[in-house]
Design a protein that fits this description.
mainly alpha
């Protein structure tokens, strides 16, 4: 998005051209300022500031449009993934799945309540009995039985079971989680997830590029006190460190402006003058 290499043409300079001019001017000053007189350094710095003031509207407008384009691409990928998962969810008959889960849960409860020496001890401990039942359902070839058994195992309580059975049920839970993912994670969902991840990675890559643009245009990158217009564009995309969620905001949101207009102004501590 923020590629500085542009083809020469007879058309008017683009925002990339203007940004490239400022970039090269800064690099030139940095490279030769040690050999310049104080007056020359001051003149070159002033020239850069004049260019920034002159071309800021063009650069900002171009960057903003490109940035909003990447945000929209991410939104599209997010929506497509949600729609794909909803489509997979809708293909299941809820009543049929519920009936299968109820039946399997009743059989599991029966296996757990049996004495260890029942049927001459041939079925082993509680976890072994449940595992055999689960494997029967998984080998049935019926997707409703396969999903129902995995869902029940994942929600199965181990309270009151012996230590060995608790471990056995937990191991079976890991197996059920993998089977459930394999059953429900269709090729279409996998493709949508890959597209989503790629879009999210690209979004944050371009967000980093905004830092370079802001620096070139003389804006502060301070996460709290940075108030430049390009710096604010960065704040439209934020990562929640606790949940890992990507949050999107508009330029008018308090997360971007730093001002929450929804809250009433606090009265003066000693009342009105």
């Amino acid at each position: 998005m923020f590629n500085y290499s542009t083809q020469r043409s007879n058309s008017a300079p683009t925002w990339q051209d203007r940004l490239k001019e400022i970039k090269f001017a800064r690099e030139h000053l940095s490279k030769y300022e040690a050999m310049m007189t104080p007056y020359e350094r001051e003149m070159r710095s002033q020239e850069i500031q004049d260019r920034i003031r002159t071309h800021y509207p063009t650069v900002y407008g171009g960057v903003k449009k490109a940035w909003e384009g990447w945000i929209n691409e991410y939104k599209k990928a997010t929506t497509h993934l949600a729609e794909t998962k909803a489509k997979e969810y809708a293909k299941w008959d809820a009543s049929k799945l519920g009936a299968e889960m109820q039946t399997f849960k009743a059989l599991v409860d029966q296996k757990l309540s049996m004495r260890s020496d029942s049927i001459f001890g041939q079925e082993g401990g509680a976890s072994e009995r449940v595992k055999k039942l689960y494997e029967e359902y998984q080998k049935s070839g019926d997707p409703y039985k396969q999903r129902a058994s995995s869902e029940v195992i994942l929600g199965l309580s181990t309270e009151g079971l012996k230590r060995d059975d608790v471990i056995g049920i937990r191991l079976l839970g890991h197996e059920a989680e993998g089977n459930l993912t394999q059953l429900r994670n269709t090729e279409e969902i996998q493709e949508a997830e890959e597209a989503y991840i790629e879009s999210a990675q690209e979004l944050f890559k371009q967000r980093e590029n905004l830092s370079e643009v802001a620096t070139l245009m003389g804006e502060s990158l301070d996460p709290v006190f940075g108030s430049g217009d390009i710096s604010k564009l960065q704040k439209m995309v934020q990562l929640d460190r606790e949940t890992g969620n990507i949050n999107l905001y508009t330029l008018d949101d308090p997360e971007v402006t730093g001002i929450d207009w929804s809250q009433p102004l606090k009265p003066e501590p000693f009342g009105e003058a």
